[in-house]
Amino acid sequence: MIRSISFLGLIILLNSCISSKCIFIEDPQNNENENPYNYDNKIYLSNKEYFYTYQIVKGNDTLKYKIDNDSVFSLIKYDSKDDKAIDLLSIKTLKAKGPIFQDHPDYSQTEIILSHLNSDKKTITSELTGVIENSTNVWLHPFRMNAFQILQFSPFPYVKPNESKKYKWNLEIGEHWKELKDITWKGKLNLKCVYENTLKDKKIILPSGIVNTIETRSNCSSKNWESFFNIVFQ
User: Fold this and answer.
1) Cβ distance 143 to 115 under 8 Å?
2) Nearest to residue 148, comparing CAs of 175, 180, 188?
3) Which of 47, 65, 102, 228 has an alpha carbon 20 to 30 Å from 221's alpha carbon atom?
4) What pLDDT digit, counting tens, does each position of 5-19 carry?
């Protein structure tokens, strides 16, 4: 089975990886109330929320998704008007120590809420997860619920801006992963991901002006799976 995924984001930023020491984690800052890993963030600042549009391309169709009353999602035309349709995504950084940190004091990530919103910015569904951000690397849990569950099998957004060689990250997924409703397998699935900074000075034109970025390309493979990911990092 071959799956291809491409993703473009201006600023996109493990527990599974922390044990293999492939991602650098900064020393925590002693702070009684605020998450101890927020202090050196340049992108995911405390209590900030970022909004994104998205498209799902399937064949010749451009789609988005909606959630029905029974919590089952379905794909609809991108220009469809529906109160249950997901029109926006958002990433919000928690300032205080959130539920994950309170339950796991050794948690070493900035906590974020990934929300799926309708056109009125009303949250339809959301998940709590984390991001690792410092001057050495940025690593992010992607959206993985409902129509985005396939991203669990793609290279997670991971940028090492000063790295000149290919770098790797591996993920092992057990067969019972609650966010996945339509994809199943037996045993453990081992994903091997390879990243490479392909363009060090990629220019992007924004309403605010021209910004210089780094383009990182990656691929992820297992015994019967292959996926691809493009990241543009400011």
Assistant:
1) no
2) 180
3) 65
4) 333 333 333 344 443
